[in-house]
Amino acid sequence: MKSYPDRAVVIRTWPLGESDRIVTLFTREHGKIRAVAKGVRGAKSRISGLIQPTSELDLLLYRGRELDVIQQASLLQAHLARVGVDPGQFGSALEWLEAIDNLTVDRHPDPVVYELMNRGLRLLADEPAPSLLGALLMRLLDIEGYAPNLSVCGLCGSAVGVFVGFDFASSAPRCSGCGGEPVGPAVFVKTASVLAHRVSEVLVDENVPSGREFEAFAIRLVKEVVGRGLRSTGVVASLLDAGPAQNDSC
Ligand SMILES: [Zn+2]
């Protein structure tokens, strides 16, 4: 019996052949998996509307050799995959899911990330604070072991505590004498708050430019980690590398 039940959030989808889709799912019990949804691009498909990024689904899956197969699906939460969602909010949700995709490895159960993913999607839909995405990404980086060490300047070791720059290659801050790329003080304050599990202090800040700067900083950190080659290169990745990946479902 190779069928198994699980619940999962749809991270992204790609068309496969005439009527199928490959779906990246982050499941609660089995971590990140890739599965085929057969026949979902036909007009008669009952589940095609469910298999959208951000949706949380109750699934019956069949364990295949390389890709699993979605046998049954029902909707638990649409999150942002619903009519009337602000495009900016949906874009933030896709950025959030892409980071989860990039920072996790296949078939590694991670209930903490699963809960954070769902909580993040809920907040992005209902309470989209300016610093929310930055806080979520920083929390994820921390969980996955990629949080920056903000205790000392990465170059001279000074523990002066006031940093004005950051070196993304080494993921370390820089004091005023050591250069680095300029980073505003609010970014360091917010990063430290998230790493100290004081996320609520970050979310109350309604300053939009400050939130954007924090978000850009966190996105850059994620990209640097991914650039170091964490991303898995399984069968689907190599298949997708053959042509431009496109997510045509959003
Ligand atoms: Zn220094």
Describe the protein:
There is one protein chain. With 250 residues, the chain is of the alpha+beta class. The protein folds into two domains: 1-128, Nucleic acid-binding proteins (OB fold (Dihydrolipoamide Acetyltransferase, E2P)); 129-250, no CATH class. 35% of the residues lie in helices and 22% in strands. The protein contains seven helices and eight strands; from the N terminus they run βββββαααβββαααα. It has helices at residues 87-103, 111-126, 132-143, 185-195, 199-203, 208-227, 235-241, and strands spanning 3-16, 20-27, 31-37, 56-62, 68-77, 165-167, 172-174, 181-182. The strands form two sheets. It has a five-stranded mixed beta barrel with strand order 1-2-3-5-4. A hairpin with a 3-residue loop joins β1 (3-16) and β2 (20-27). It is elongated, with a radius of gyration of 20 Å. The structure holds zinc ion (ZN). Zinc ion is lined by residues 153, 155-156, 158, 174-175, 177-178.
Question: What does this entry show, briefly?
Answer:
By secondary structure, the protein is an alpha+beta fold.
| Small-molecule components bound | zinc ion
Strand content: 15-25%
Total strand segments? 8
How many domains? 2
Taken from the alpha-carbon principal axes, the silhouette is: elongated
Strand order of the largest sheet: 1-2-3-5-4
Mean pLDDT: 89
Helix content: 25-40%
Q: Label the CATH architecture of the largest domain.
A: Beta Barrel
Unreliable stretches (pLDDT < 50, length at least 5) are: 231-250
Q: What's the CATH topology label of the largest domain? A: OB fold (Dihydrolipoamide Acetyltransferase, E2P)
Radius of gyration using CA atoms only: 20 Å
